[in-house]
Amino acid sequence: MMHKHTRTALEKSIVLWGQHHAAGGYDPEAGDCALCNRFRKFNTHCERVNAKGEVIELCPVRERSGHTGCRGTPFYEVDLETPKGSKREIDFLKSLRPKDA
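Above: the chain sequence. Below: its structure as C-alpha cells.
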C-alpha cells in the first residue's frame, strides 16, 4: 500500500504535469516535482531510509521503472517540450496510482 504522503506527492506531481501540459510542454518555472522532493531530498537513490539507513520506501516511479532519476519513463523517452510529450508523462504518473484507492 502506498504511504499517504507518497500518494499526496504523486497527485501533486500529476497536477504539476497538468500545468506543464497547459503551458504547451515542460515549463521549468512551474515548480519542482513533489515525488522528487519526497524521495530525493536526502539521497539520489529515489528512496526513503530510516535512521539505520534501511530502505523503507521507494519512489513509485523507481518501483515501476527499476531505475533512479526517472530513467526508463516518458520523462526521458519523449520530447516533454510538446503537449504530446507532457501528456505521456501525465498518463504514466496516473498509471502509478494504487488500485486500492
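The first helix runs from residue 4 to 22.
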